[in-house]
């Protein structure tokens, strides 16, 4: 039993009508309008959600309702299956080529292209901090792998940089590009930790010859986080021999690390010199322009409507990694989907406290502000940070908030955390001080004097 496209659309309409009797119009519009019924048989009903997040939430919260309503409409109870098209349209009729072309790989070890095909050169946002690594990776991926030997110019390619800046993205982009052009090539992409685990397992099972055949016969070997292999003698010995075998066969080797080879202290010299014999490219922490460009890309990916001024605020305050930027946008997407609210600057400041880290200088300034005002008002720091609400504490506490907003880059969440107050209280504090400044000139002069001292 297979339903045609028009029949599926009619069933979807009836489904919306049935779900509307169980849920509010807001819930139905948010979760079910864009949920496409892609295929239906007696055994399975396949739906396509627009994002991973919607897929997860529908499965978690609404799958029973979906199943019951569908059964009422069609007269049978198929299994509900939900896919996400966040990383591209889904063709349910195609079995994707594996990224790791390893006939001996167990199902757990095999990585499918359908899972990692979102990592491409096209969606890798390029800036000053990663331009060289991107260009080098692209040059390697675009080599003529139809020839028996590849050029040694980029072999090995060693990419290094801190965590979360896109090194693994480039490894997958290289893999996906080569497989697009040469689907029969044997490519292994693995972390150094997994390489180590497989080696230990092979030694224990006395299958090291199979292990060596697997890795030394590849066309391209990509190892992520190679620094974790350093210091382990047996692993370094195997890496050395594997490297030599692949290099001498004129096949491609690509490695990533959080530091350059010369700074991996427990790495054997013979490996270090080999890692440095090709092309070394670094990725630095993303600069502001790159962070802003990444945020714009992520908002499009998650269908978020966020003002450029708010994206600039996020870009100015999250500087540690691209992974943090992605996490922040995912959280805002969840807030917008679950709460149905607009993303405002206050909402961002109150929601992303775990991502927006205070600068050390601002943390120090916050302490100076508390000390300055506690001395002027003759109240202790402990009282200011306590839950007391006595009259002699209220004003200095309000003033600390106001001065911190003027003299630091801390947001209201961070200031609130510093003085044990929530964001709502801080809004009241700011309003209180502004009103007193307008009414009391002496108080206005006092505030200006404190600001000069803190900034001076």
- Radius of gyration, CA atoms, in whole angstroms: 29 Å
Q: What gap, in angstroms, lies between the N and C termini? A: 78 Å
Low-pLDDT stretches? 89-115
* Helical amount: 55-70%
Spatial strand sequence of the major β-sheet: 5-6-7-4-8
Described by the principal axes of the CA atoms, the overall outline is: flat
Main β sheet profile = 5 strands, parallel
Q: What is the β-strand count?
A: 8
Number of helices: 20
Beta-strand content estimate: 5-15%
* Average pLDDT figure: 83
SSE run: HHEEHEHHEHEHHEHEHEHHHHHHHHHH
Structural class determined from secondary elements = alpha/beta
Can you describe what's shown?
The chain is an alpha/beta fold. A five-stranded parallel beta sheet has the order 5-6-7-4-8, sandwiched between helices. Strands 1-2-3 form a three-stranded mixed beta sheet. Helix 9 links the parallel strand 6 and strand 7. The protein is flat, with a radius of gyration of 29 Å. The chain starts with a helix and ends with a helix. The relative contact order is 0.07.
Short description:
The protein is an alpha/beta fold and 456 residues long. It has helices at 5-20, 25-31, 52-74, 113-116, 131-141, 167-181, 192-205, 208-216, 233-248, 269-275, 288-301, 308-317, 322-339, 345-351, 360-377, 381-385, 391-407, 412-419, 423-439, 441-455; strands at 36-40, 44-49, 79-84, 157-160, 187-191, 220-224, 252-257, 279-282. Strands 5-6-7-4-8 form a 5-stranded parallel β-sheet, with helices on both faces.
Topology:
Layout: H1 5-20, H2 25-31, E1 36-40, E2 44-49, H3 52-74, E3 79-84, H4 113-116, H5 131-141, E4 157-160, H6 167-181, E5 187-191, H7 192-205, H8 208-216, E6 220-224, H9 233-248, E7 252-257, H10 269-275, E8 279-282, H11 288-301, H12 308-317, H13 322-339, H14 345-351, H15 360-377, H16 381-385, H17 391-407, H18 412-419, H19 423-439, H20 441-455
Parallel strand pairs: 2-3, 4-7, 4-8, 5-6, 6-7
Antiparallel strand pairs: 1-2
